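[09:14] KT: can someone run the structure on this one? pasting the chain below
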Amino acid sequence: MTRLSIVGVHLGNVEDVSPRARECLAAANLLICESRKEASRLYRALGLVFPDYRELSEHTTAEERSALVGEILKHDRVALVSDAGMPVLADPGAEIIHQARERGIAIEAIAGPNAALLALVLAGQGGTGFRFAGFPPRKTQERPVFFETLVRSDVPVVLYETPYRLKKLLGELARLRAPGRWRVFVGVGLTTEKEFTLDTELSSLRSRSEQVPVGPPVVVLYRDRFFSGESTHSGRN
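[09:31] RB: done, structure tokens below
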């Protein structure tokens, strides 16, 4: 019987890959990955032999996704991974899960690091819930309304963005006219040697955003209820 394992991998520190995840990746005879480059790098770091693979990315068409489920059915041990962290969340793997379940494929999840949850923890937020907004819209005309809805939230909002669009995102957040006092937490390269975090008032974001390096980011926008002052951290102690 085919088993599809949704495998959480590291965000940037390979030591965070669990023994269970490593065992699953070693046993897989088909790997569904976001990109061969990142997946092969993961296998090399773990000292594993890279298996047969298929790519599943934002560029994969609906027809290709359907065909991919057929490929999964030809194997008994299939692993699904993202380039970093936990698959399916703000990730092209979501639709595959639904299609696989409809075809009677057994599905399991192997827990791993998640950038959104790590950012909430580092920001000291999430005790009363949070909203995961994922990636902002790509279309320019849709972005203003998207950002305006964020500051109407009663709970912290988590955003993802690509490294090369981070500066644009921070600029748009800095221009928001938000009711009350809001703060922004920015984490770049979480769990890596070059981990950078910034926690600042929304009103100060414009002047402080130049400090933020290029890298895999996660952003938390939240109401200022407990914090006073600002904080910046770069690298490990």
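[09:33] KT: thanks! The chain has a mean pLDDT of 92.
[09:34] RB: yep, looked fine to me
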